[in-house]
Design a protein that fits this description.
By secondary structure, the chain is an alpha+beta fold. Helix content is 32%, strand content 23%. The protein has a three-stranded antiparallel sheet with strand order 1-2-3. The longest helix is centred in the middle third of the chain and has 15 residues. It is globular, with a radius of gyration of 17 Å.
């Protein structure tokens, strides 16, 4: 009866599961942090997805240096590159895949019980199928 629709934050259609474009636009329009608090907030959100971003620790290193004690906040070119790369990695479709109903599912969640990921292992590599977070909102 319905050709496509948004279910649990994902667009479902005859093509399978796709990312909701509205959520991608929010992340892609996110301005760079202007303070240590902004960097901490951004890193706190992306930290949960670290296992899905290749070389995560190397990518965030310039941003983490801004959090060191007695360091002057200088959001330089290296920080901007890391910020833009993280935004790109979070907004491109490979981060979420369509479920393979013949494989078992795995549920991962963080210690605060505020976020979780449903996924499957294909050739020992974890592929996320769905993300859920109690603390993330439309803003």
């Amino acid at each position: 009866m319905v050709e496509e629709g948004i279910v649990l934050g994902h667009k479902i259609s005859k093509h399978g599961i796709e990312v909701d474009k509205a959520k991608i636009e929010v992340i892609s329009r996110l301005p760079p942090p202007t303070s240590v608090k902004g960097v901490r907030s951004f890193l706190g959100h992306v930290e949960f997805y670290r296992r899905f971003i290749k070389d995560f620790s190397k990518v965030v290193n310039p941003l983490c240096k801004l959090l060191e004690k007695d360091v002057k906040f200088m959001f330089n070119e290296g920080c901007m590159t890391a910020f833009e790369l993280l935004k790109y990695k979070l907004t491109t479709t490979p981060i979420i895949t369509t479920p393979n109903w013949s494989l078992p599912f795995e549920l991962m969640y963080n210690a605060s019980d505020a976020a979780s990921v449903l996924g499957q292992r294909v050739n020992k590599m974890f592929h996320p199928v769905y993300y859920e977070s109690k603390i993330m909102n439309d803003a």
